[in-house]
Amino acid sequence: MKSSASNTYFLQGNEACVEAAVIAGCRFFAGYPISPANEIAERMSTLLPKVDGIFMQMEDELASINAIMGASWAGKKTMTATSGPGFSLMQETIGWAFMTETPCVIVDVQRVGPGTGQATKCAQGDVMQSRWGTHGDYSAIALSPNSVQEMFELTIRAFNLAEKYRTPVILLTDETIAHLREQVTIPPLENIRIINRKKPEAEDKAFFGLEEVAPMPAIGEGFNVAVTASTHDEYGVRFTADPSVHTRIVRNINDKIRNHADDIADVESYNIDNCQVGIVSYGCTSRAVHEAVEEAERKGIETGYVRLKTVWPFPEKAVKRLAQAAKKLIVPEMNLGQIFYEVKRAACSAEVIPINKIGGGELIAPEEILAEIERGNP
Amino acid sequence: MQNRIEIKIGGHGGQGVVLAGQILGKAAVFDGKNALQTQTYGAEARGSLARSEVIISDGKIGFPAVRKCDILLAMNQKSLDAHFKNLKENGVLIVDSSNVESIPEIKARIFRVPATEIARKEFGEILYANIVMLGALTRITNLVNKESLEKAIRDSVSERTLGANLNAYRKGLHTKFET
Amino acid sequence: MMVEAFSPRKYMRDLKFPFCPGCGLFSVSDAFLRAVHELGYKDLSKFVFCSGIGCSSWVPSPYYIGDSLHTLHGRSIPVATSVKLVRPDLNVVVFGGDGDIVGIGLGHFIHAARRNADVLVIMTNNMIYGMTGGQVAPTTPLRTKTTTTPYGSFEHPIDAARLAAAAGAAYSARWTTAHPNDLRKSIKKAIQTKGFGFIEAVSQCPTAYGRRAGFKDIGEMLKWFKESAIAVEQSKKMSEKELEKRIVVGEFVQRSRPTLVETVYAMIEEAKAGAKQN
Predict the structure, then answer these.
(1) Among A56, A357, B45, B169, which residue's Cβ finds the most Cβ atoms within 10 Å?
(2) What pLDDT digit, counting tens, does each position of B102-158 carry?
(3) Is pTM, for the whole model, over 0.90?
(4) ipTM above 0.90, yes or no
(5) Do chains B and C touch (3 or more CB pairs under 8 A)?
(6) What separation in angstroms does the CA of A318 have from each of A157, A275, A307, C44?
(7) Based on the domain organization, do A128 and A144 belong to the same domain?
(8) C residues 192-251 closer than 8 Å to A (CB)
(9) Which chains touch C (3 or more CB pairs under 8 A)?
């Protein structure tokens, strides 16, 4: 739906994600039904064919994530969408994507776990899974939108980061943001920055690890590219005997993210240098913070916040700055403490207090955060 | 948080409470306001309780859940019983009087609209009751512009049912209601 | 016209296969490359290779001069399916072993056949997990001793070629490494058949299977293949009991039904036409 005045729509988070993906250039989607991510596949199946894109519902999440690997190497921008259980199934292949430097976007609409948990209820329990879900050494990128507008913007950004750094990017959203409907403004297409992967020159032969982000050929372009997630040399030839080859390639897939953490990490912050109390939040939980802070300030307590739009790499600098001003940091999460420990690590001497709520999907309310802000303050 | 209005719409699955919430939210956006709509998810198929919530504000909408609502639309007795305690004091309660027999003793402005009866009589289809209710809501509260709501209906329903939906809306706008 | 003489080196990188002496994979690769040669392909630029984990998955990656995706254990088929969808102009060939294709990857195998995904799967069936040291496989004959069935295997083996046919494959055939000519001819046919093609090549693993199963040398294993082979047609007259120790060889299906590429692209055209109308 379109309003007459501007390109403002009233969409669900999951729907805005699809609109953005198609604008970002996604032309291959594979997925498997799972709540609360289904609206993404459903809308993709409608939109993609109209733009010569391919939608596939695969037999399971393993097939889905592997299908987007193949399509990415065949030259397409690709995406899948799932929730915790499916995200767990995909982890081995996400490791394959890190090791082979395959750009793709994986949407995880978080729900209550572990196990089947509460399939339709909101949670934030996959924060560490999005960082450490697969085995081995790698550096992940995970983005955390907190509105339908940001579902749109961060989906575009997820594709751009995937293409720029030749890496899988996780859009770590949650049931609340994915299902709520809000207005979303889609800027004119010419104002949306789209990044595409670097392609090789005809004479290029080294596609892995010699430079920070090597050019990526597509299948069928005559490069005779060998792709393997076994330890491989710069030509993609499996070479598992030499520890130095492994060290070089694995250091590279880490360094290309770590060395650009400041480019990738993104936060929204408020009053971080002059607050007595600071709040670190992300995703659905952050929706309660604004109201709590307003109320605290009305009561005369200087309060600031850092909202993580990027969960990984963890925006350490911003949190450190907040911790330098505030005596106390509050970390509300719909889990039993995940980002909490990252904040604690960055906060040095500041006291860090978790607010945790799990099960049932009921959000942490502004009043609960306010009570913690007020505790110990006159 | 200025002028934040919270609306809860309750009924049983199949009465169109989710669609009603979506149309209302859309109309508010057409009015140039901020709007947010959520609905209950779960194993709620036809027949069980369904709920849709809308928040409309001139300012930024932070917390997306409705705690105490300003307006409650109850499409049946069960959802009225379930939600009337969440209505703010002196809030607006609009009930589909075709499906509601007893209204609890509460401090509220109460409006009875026989939406299901109207839908059955006028269109032979009770499923237009939700749109009749939106018409009544618009007339009673002026929450959104009449025209915006009509536009939102046009934008949300299929071509096949558009005529009936618009008629249902007008019926709601002009129906007599008991207070 | 003079046909250029066959040379595997034409298609292969200057690397040596890492397989044990006497491994059946030499024969499988030879049959494939000869088939490609006989079909007139001077190089592998019109091919894409997908493989998983296991010795068989090393046949194309990185040894063939062409594009190759060496994927995870069991996952080559969904990767191949999407590659073919994006590049219908290329021949997509999966190389895998029995553990890869009908063990861990069985679900994908059945669904690819059901979809009639336009890929050719060449499964080398050595009836054992060879790379990991000789554990029982879903293809291991009943009562065979392996490192995880020291008292003999107690499960019935899977019949992959028949399964492919039942699930909807366009082409399915089984041969052994003792039937190199038939194997080559079937591969040629499968490359030319639209839709899901399946070739099962029963093959010897002298290291992990032959030794333990009591075969003195490769010759004995090939003799076993030859003597126990029975043609599909003939097998139809035999009882399950009579077939227990036999290897049924030949073509199990050859048919034409709409392929995944055809149905997907037809749907795209319909969606685009519908979008224009609105």
Answers:
(1) A56
(2) 999 999 999 999 999 999 999 888 999 999 999 999 999 999 999 999 999 999 999
(3) yes
(4) yes
(5) no
(6) 20, 14, 9, 52
(7) yes
(8) none
(9) A
